[in-house]
Structure formats: C-alpha cells, structure tokens
C-alpha cells in the first residue's frame, strides 16, 4: 500500500475527501462482492458489504426527494432557501435537494430493498431533484418512468444495514452508500452479467403488482435527457 506524506494527508483532509464515497469506496474486487442472501444471513454480525444485481423501483412511495446539508449531504428537516447550522457536520450550510429513491436490488440468490440517494440515484433516473419535487407537488405519477429508467441497470453497490425503531419494534433498513453501474465498470474485471430468466427468492417479497397506464396528464411530465 502506498503511504501518504503528512502534506498529502493534510491535503485530503482540507479537501474533505474523508467524506467522499468516490474516494473511500473505489470499485471492489470480484472476491469482495457477496451474494445478497449471504449478506442478509450475516446481519447483524456484518452490517455492510458489496453486492451486485439488477435494479427496479420499490413501489409504494410518493416522495422521491429529500433536503440535505450541502457540506456533508446528511438529511436535514429544512427548506432549500434556508441557511442552517448542520447538526451532523456542525458547519453553517445551505440546504440542497437530493434524490431519495427506494429500489430493489436482485441477484440470483435473493432480493433486497434499499434506499439510494443523491448523485448515485440521479445518474440512473433521468430526473433532477427539483423535477422530483415538482412532480409530487403537482400530483404527477412518475413511478412508471422511474422504474423504466432504473431497470436498465446492473449495479455494484456498497450497502449498509441498520435497525431503527418503528411502532415499538426494530425495523431493518438498507442504504446504498456507493453505487457503480455496469457501464462505469466496463473496464473492471467484475461478473457484471446475470443469467437470464433467473428465479429469485426473497424473504421480503416481490413487487410484481401491475400498475395502471399513465394518464395524459402524467405523460406531460417528462424527464431530462
């Protein structure tokens, strides 16, 4: 491993690279990727791992955006025109809109529900965070458009699992910390192809319910190119 000089370390600290997932989580080696079923079985002994699979939208949500601190990207309950003192990074900060998309990642072993945020989500959905917010406020249903965009992708993701209280019980949730698409890893030796017609089981169930066709009003809201 290459060592850094004290000046090199200080430069990384000054640039806040310690909070940059692109720097901290480069593409993994093939042997570092776990089957989703293995990752699920290891919880809570292991709470984070690289997984790989195809993507689709997890239906049932109406809000696909959130507000976050510009400095550390942690979620804050604030309007986008506010200047805040962030409770996470302890810095004065502006507030930004970020995508917050519930997805299901599937490999030949199982499926897992998770949330993907920010740039990693936005590069796949073709909508800006502002468009996601406007769609909700205007009552446009964009589930079909989001799913059509997401299902084009195979991704390699670093997932983090945790438990949070919900109605008196602990509920397990999964967050995508960093995601790479197959196109981004085209020169990286990873098993990016999944077998066709793979039968996938999941303890979380599947989202195979049919959804109504878009109305003419829905079709008026189109994603960015």
TrEMBL record:
The gene is LOC140037661. Residues 63-179 form the Replication factor A C-terminal domain. Pfam families: Rep_fac-A_C (PF08646). It comes from the Eukaryota. This is Uncharacterized protein isoform X1. It comes from Coffea arabica. Residues 201-225 are annotated as: Disordered.
């Amino acid at each position: 491993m290459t060592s850094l000089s004290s000046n090199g370390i200080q430069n990384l600290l000054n640039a806040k690279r310690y909070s940059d997932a692109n720097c901290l989580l480069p593409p993994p080696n093939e042997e570092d990727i776990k089957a989703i079923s293995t990752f699920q079985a290891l919880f809570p002994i292991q709470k984070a791992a690289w997984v790989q699979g195809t993507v689709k939208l997890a239906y049932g949500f109406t809000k696909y955006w959130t507000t976050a601190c510009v400095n550390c990207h942690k979620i804050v309950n604030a309007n986008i025109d506010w200047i805040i003192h962030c409770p996470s990074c302890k810095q004065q900060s502006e507030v930004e809109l970020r995508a917050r998309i519930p997805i299901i990642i599937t490999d030949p072993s199982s499926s897992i529900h998770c949330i993907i945020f920010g740039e990693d989500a936005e590069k796949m959905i073709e909508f800006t965070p502002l468009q996601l917010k406007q769609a909700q406020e205007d009552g446009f249903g964009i589930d079909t458009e989001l799913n059509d965009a997401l299902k084009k992708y195979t991704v390699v993701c670093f997932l983090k699992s945790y438990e949070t209280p919900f109605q008196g019980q602990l509920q397990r949730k999964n967050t995508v910390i960093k995601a790479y698409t197959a196109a981004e890893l085209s020169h990286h030796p990873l098993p990016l192809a999944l077998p066709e017609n793979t039968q996938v089981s999941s303890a979380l169930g599947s989202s195979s319910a049919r959804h109504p066709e878009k109305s003419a009003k829905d079709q008026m809201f189109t994603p960015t190119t």
